[in-house]
Design brief:
Shape: globular
Structural class: alpha/beta
Largest sheet: 7 strands, mixed
Number of strands: 9
Bound molecules: S-adenosylmethionine
Radius of gyration: 17 Å
Order of helices and strands: HHEHEHEEHEHEEHEE
Strand order of the largest sheet: 3-2-1-4-5-9-8
Number of helices: 7
Strand content: 25-35%
Length: 224
């Protein structure tokens, strides 16, 4: 990942009603994973929302009972998260930082959630993230991700194989952000099998569900 390109892009996006947890019409995706999280969360759980943006998933996990910390490198998104948090009387803590260089203490969290963010990360970055999570997750702590399968996106015409650089797996897009300009947005080609293989080098897969069309939930356990 090119941290500067991505951070600049997310900072430029700023506020949009789509990212606001108070707007219930945004809860379609959240509601799909709510039952999966409900099975894992109780009042004793400390949870980490990786790439929390304006805190949608953080607020959901808090609603389910967890004590939540969200981390993101976009100071603009975090400011919005904190404002929404204040308004809804949330106790979520929002920390500015790069998830590839987290400063949390060993065994800080029982669960880390990484919802649909994996495409923004290079293959080696996910290995770095796994090494960090092995340390900051408790023994038997859970690493939960949601992912779309890249091959399935091509099969169903949602992506074209021509859009990916075959050598690196990078897909470059350019977004015209109103009143801000053109911003580059880089993603990487990921498949379900590949994500399971890479994360499986560090964690034990304990659950795999297709919870909606081409939307997969994976739960990994941190066996120390
Ligand atoms: C696709 S958005 C998803 C946000 C959130 N999961 C949601 O659906 O509301 C990805 C978020 O991850 C953040 N992000 C991407 N790479 C990051 C990194 N290396 N460290 C911290 N945050 C990162 C971005 O700033 C952005 O807010």
């Amino acid at each position: 990942m090119n941290t500067k390109i991505m951070k600049d892009r997310y900072n430029a996006v700023g506020y949009h009603p789509m990212i606001d947890y108070r707007n219930k019409s945004n809860h379609k995706k959240l509601n799909l994973i709510k039952p999966l999280l409900q099975d894992l969360i109780n009042a004793k759980i400390t949870a980490l929302d990786l790439g929390c943006n304006a805190g949608k998933y953080s607020f959901l996990m808090e609603e389910l009972g967890a004590k939540v910390t969200g981390i993101d490198f976009s100071d603009v998104a975090l400011e919005i998260a904190r404002e929404i948090g204040k308004d809804i009387k949330s106790h979520c803590v929002f920390v500015e930082g790069n998830i590839l260089d987290m400063q949390f203490k060993e065994n800080s969290f029982d669960l880390a959630l990484f919802p649909l963010n994996i495409v923004e990360f290079q293959y080696g970055d996910i290995e770095i993230l796994c090494q960090e999570l092995k340390n900051i997750l408790t023994p038997n702590g859970l690493f939960c991700i949601t992912i779309q399968d890249g091959i399935s996106r091509i099969r169903t015409g949602r992506d074209s194989k021509e859009t990916y650089d075959l050598s690196s797996g990078i897909h470059k897009a350019f977004h015209d952000i109103p009143n801000k300009g053109i911003y580059e947005y880089q993603t990487y080609f990921w498949t379900l099998a590949f994500a399971k293989y890479i994360i499986g080098k560090y964690f034990t897969l304990i659950k795999e569900v297709e919870y909606d069309a081409n939307l997969y939930w994976l739960t990994f356990k941190n066996i120390k």
